[in-house]
Known about the structure:
Layout: E1 26-32, E2 35-41, E3 48-52, H1 66-71, E4 75-79, H2 98-109, E5 114-119, H3 121-132, E6 137-143, H4 152-161, H5 171-175, H6 178-183, H7 185-196, H8 214-217, E7 224-229, H9 237-246, E8 251-255, H10 262-265, H11 267-280
Parallel strand pairs: 3-4, 3-5, 5-6, 6-7, 7-8
Antiparallel strand pairs: 1-2, 2-4
Helix pairs in contact: 2-3
Amino acid sequence: MPEASISPGKPAVWTPVPIPEQVPVKEGIAKLPGTSLWYWDTGGDGDAVVLLHAASGSGAFWGYQQPVLAKAGFRVISYSRRGYLKSDPGDRNDPGVASEDLQNLLGFLGVGKFHVIGLAAGGIVATDYALSYPERLKSLTLVSTIMGVTDKSYLDLCNIFRPAFFAQLPKDFQELSPSYRAGNPEGAAAWAALAKTSMIGERLNQKNANVITWDKVEAIKVPTLLMTGDSDLWTPPSVLRLQASHLTHAEVKVIKEAGHAPSWEQPEDFNAALLDFVRRNAT
């Protein structure tokens, strides 16, 4: 994490982290049942790591992670879900199941067991996938996600700290921490510009294969890492601890000075925690 230094008469200093040079990838369009999805794949013989984007993002949002994971020896894959950057929305009256799209894409790419990292809404897809196909996962990383849990007590809690007007606030306010927006306005502007390219038309709300409940979450035995930012308005640390109480085997990491997009706001801390976890669960 960039260090802040404060001295009399001087503002706090934030040292931006530049997006590193990307490694070469194979890009393509996977023709799948009901849709065609844009993907990229670094290839290689290492364990596959699949990155699932947020609702505000797309497969293009992993510039800080792609080269770091690839240079660590992993095969890195991401894609845009239906209705996002370069991917076909398909029939909006039949949006399909996002975790089944993931399963079909893995078949298209010839991927066996893999590590999945789900950010925000991507974490809902990852949770749903873990319930349907636990045998396919080497590890599960859930980042800044509400997980899609439908228990009334959980939904009521979320409505307490995120009142109805919250959804109308600007996306950068919802998702980027005030510390990041104040300390790195150029980085915040780059995130917002990328977010504007993410969605094709109105958001497509895909279905889950499972009704996700705490009881079902407690049955997940895949090695799991839970992460969030300390200023996340969607999944604050208290909610992360609630999630961890239902995943008692899970490891927990709170990223300092980050909101709902810790992979973008604090990539060095995020990548260090992620690499340590997937390496320990690699074959």
